[in-house]
Amino acid sequence: MVYVKNKFYIEKDVLEKLYKEHGSIQSVADHLGISKKLVLNWMKHYDIPRKPHNKYNTTHVKVASLVMEGKTTSEIAEILGMSKTGVLQAAKKAGVRTNDKYHKGFIETYNGYILVKAPDHPGADCKGYVREHRLVIEKYLGRYLEDGEIAHHVDGNKKNNAIDNLELMLLSEHTRLHHVGKVGRGKDKKPRKRHSKI
């Protein structure tokens, strides 16, 4: 291989040997410090045939066989030492569906509330979820909560949605209960700025 005034030259036998050793065009390009396109151009110039691209490589076959055995994405990833995303992509290329149970039936919010799928509920969010404690107290009351009504957790545990831990309150009472003696806007927010008189 020779560089002359920003031009690259490589002999046919050297390129063939490198391609055979490295196994891929990208590896040859990395080895020589040139672009993949330049390697392809020289291979075309010398009529060096490219290796046929195998649609189903061994990883796809392994993933497909493990899916057929009933393994989940996490289990397959652990067995093959791959990421879950890699397993999902390999399964898709192999044309098989994974055996995952993607959803546990509820969502836990960042602040600890449990949301349950109830798309027909008038208080459902844009994805069709409602806070579980609301559903529990509404079932107990036999009606939907009205505006200004809150289901309060007596023990303070937002995940404990048993009916004996829930108390029906007005929003104003609930606010008063939780904000007695607090200065500022809560523990997670900055205190309000105080303007002193000069």
Walk me through what this model shows.
By secondary structure, this protein is an alpha+beta fold. Helix content is 39%, strand content 13%. It has helices at residues 12-22, 25-32, 36-45, 58-68, 73-80, 84-94, 132-141, 171-178; strands spanning 2-4, 7-9, 106-108, 114-117, 129-131, 149-153, 166-170. A 3-stranded antiparallel β-sheet has the order 3-4-5. The N and C termini lie far apart (80 Å).
Topology:
Blueprint lengths: L1 E3 L2 E3 L2 H11 L2 H8 L3 H10 L12 H11 L4 H8 L3 H11 L11 E3 L5 E4 L11 E3 H10 L7 E5 L12 E5 H8 L20
Antiparallel strand pairs: 1-2, 3-4, 4-5, 6-7
Helix pairs in contact: 2-3, 4-6, 5-6
Keywords:
198 residues; three-stranded antiparallel beta sheet; two-stranded antiparallel ribbon; 3 domains; alpha+beta
Task: Give a short synopsis of this structure.
This protein is an alpha+beta fold and 198 residues long. It has 3 domains: 2-45; 58-94; 106-178, no CATH class. Helix content is 39%, strand content 13%.
Q: Helicity level, as a percent range?
A: 25-40%
Overall geometry? elongated
Query: Unreliable stretches, pLDDT < 50, 5 or more residues?
Result: none
Order of helices and strands: EEHHHHHHEEEHEEH
